[in-house]
Amino acid sequence: MAISDTGIRIEPGSFRDPTNRVFHRDGEVLRGLDDLAARDWRSLAATDFFRSLLAEGKVCGTEELVPTPVDVPWTAVLRHERIPFVSHPYEWSFGMLRDAALLHLNILRAALAAGFTTKDGSAYNLQWRGASPVFIDVGSFAPARDGEPWAGYRQFCQTLLYPLLLQAHLGVDFQPWLRARVDGIEPDQMRRLFGGTRRLLPGVPTHVHLHGAMQARHARSTTRDVRAQLRAAGYSRELASATVRGIEKLVRRLDRRPGASHWSDYQRTCGYSVPDRQAKERFVEAATATLGGSGLVLDLGANDGRYARIAARHADYVVAVEQDPAVADELYRALRADGERRVLPLVMDLADPSPGGGWRGVERAGFADRTQADVVLALALVHHLAIGRNVPLGEVVDQIVGLGVPGGRLVVEFVHPEDPMARRLLANKPEGLFPDYRRDTFERLLATRCRIERRSELPSGTRTLYQAVVGG
Question: Coil, strand, or helix at residue 462?
Fold first, then answer.
């Protein structure tokens, strides 16, 4: 969406707060503010707490453009740092969602102490620099007033706290729930899941059942009525801060360490020999070395992140996609422990990648629309999609190629039908179902979409690596 001929493209996900809009122009991420939002921003920018958040990297880099550009319809315009890759909460692991929630609460506590609050509590207000969360919704800050509850509490519960409770207490992966509803999990849904003795689990009595009851009680009350009742009851910023501290304590206690899974043990069970692994590492190193410290690398089927880390030595940023939430969470925790800011782990089934969602299907962009990688790594992936998920081989190649920029590189591994892993997958399928799953067919399909630069057969003799140029 553009405004006249100014070159402005409005961000599709920025429309729910009418006082400010995020837009793009000339490669920059900008935010337009109306009169009220401009006043709030200038008050915020003058505070020590906000300067500290910026200095610590907890809030995305932001500055006001002075003078305000004359060709835009806003009172003030802010320029934000560009986040390397935009992701959605249903693509995060448990540890990522919890750390995002903790950052949100930490920022809110600091804001309340300085006389500010946040108007929103959505998980979508946060993004990532590698394994470090960052708050991006600067337009959410507003002056706090006594007697007013935290306006973002409901959003926080539905998009952050409830998904964490669901997985921590019940062992249910939250990602499908958040993907199904952009506004998150409703209190009514949670109450049905947490009946009986589950009602007493940490966080459930207050934030699920009491929250739902209060919501029902005030269903016909106006916001003004609720504020007046809270004011009369002596509700203050101090009480609000104490409430936030309580939620923060709860979130810190929630955990769900990943259990064992087939994929978490894949490096030991996949049948790779040491020479095979070393050959793959050398191949990936050579393919990414030409990036020279710039560019985006996409690692599809990242597993423990071995090859994503190699790519990160040469790229500006690496997005490591892994289907198994437990494996992705282990990778995230390892990257976080290392302070890694160039590798972003995401949870995603590549046979069912994230589609566009939200309002008109464009509020949250689909994975393919967000991804134009300079190098795409697809190692030990093709056979899982083609045989394991019954995706035609040509379609698999199309998907991998489509995620790269024209002129970018692909590093693809083809597992031959006689490989032990391929035989294991084929054993569970009707005989003769995949007559086209052959090396020569794959090579022909790849060559019609790319220019193959080099190929290397691994020492085992049952796997081949290809380096190709997209559209070459």
Answer: coil
- Compute the distance between CA of residue 175 and CA of residue 93 in angstroms, rounded to an integer: 8
Helix (H) or strand (E) holding 40: helix 35-45
Give me the half-sphere count of Cα atoms (radius 13 Å) on the Cβ side of residue 425: 22
Res 227 pLDDT > 70: no
Residue 34: pLDDT over 90: yes
Architecture in CATH of 263-470: 3-Layer(aba) Sandwich (3.40)
What Rg do the C-alpha atoms of the chain give, in angstroms?
A: 25
**DSSP string for 70-124:** TTSSSSEEEEEPPPSS---GGGS-HHHHHHHHHHHHHHHHHHHHTTEEES---GG
Residue with tokens 């249903």: 90
In the chain, % helix, strand, coil (3-state, to 5) comes to: 45, 20, 35
The one-letter amino acid at 464: T
* Pair 58, 135: CB distance under 8 Å: yes
Q: Domains of the chain: which residue ranges?
A: 2-80, 94-253, 263-470
Over residues 258-296, the pLDDT tens digits come to 565 555 555 555 557 899 999 999 999 999 999 988 999
* 209 or 61, which is more confident: 61
- In eight-state DSSP terms, residue 149 is -
In 3-state terms, what secondary structure has residue 465? Answer: strand
Q: What confidence tens digit (pLDDT) does each residue in 89-118 have?
A: 999 999 999 999 999 999 999 999 999 999
Report d(CA 346, CA 331) in Å as an integer: 10
Q: Which two tokens stand for residue 81?
A: 């740092």
Report d(CA 354, CA 263) in Å as an integer: 21
DSSP 405-444: EEEEEEEEEEE-TTSHHHHHHHTTS-TTS-TT-SHHHHHH
DSSP states along 277-327: HHHHHHHHHHHHHTTTT-SEEEEET-TTSHHHHHHHTTSSEEEEEES-HHH
